[in-house]
């Protein structure tokens, strides 16, 4: 299991209690090993980051991006974060909120395909 900065635990709890509509929709389909018996964790601290969803067996991170991720500062932050996640052997999938809300089944298919490659 990857280690994390202990101070992030409190923030992760807060994020779990305040998930966006898109995060809630995806979590309702990932929780309790619903997607091909793979365990996912939500708002999981990894290193100095908190990722939206994490499947340790598949070494997969799934991020759901709101509008702030498409601004220059957000793009740079995500690039640094993704580079670190890749450096520890994780694969990162990113979807925007709208995709998750309107095309949930396609998002789940993309996650499933990525898991099959990674397992």
TrEMBL record:
InterPro entries, per database record: DUF559, Endonuclease_DUF559_bact, Restrct_endonuc-II-like
Keyword annotations: Endonuclease, Hydrolase, Nuclease
Superkingdom per UniProt: Bacteria
DUF559 domain segment(s): 8-115
Species: Pseudoxanthomonas helianthi
UniProt name for this protein: Endonuclease domain-containing protein
PANTHER family with a match to the protein in the record: BLL0828 PROTEIN
Lyase among keywords: no
GO molecular function, one term: endonuclease activity
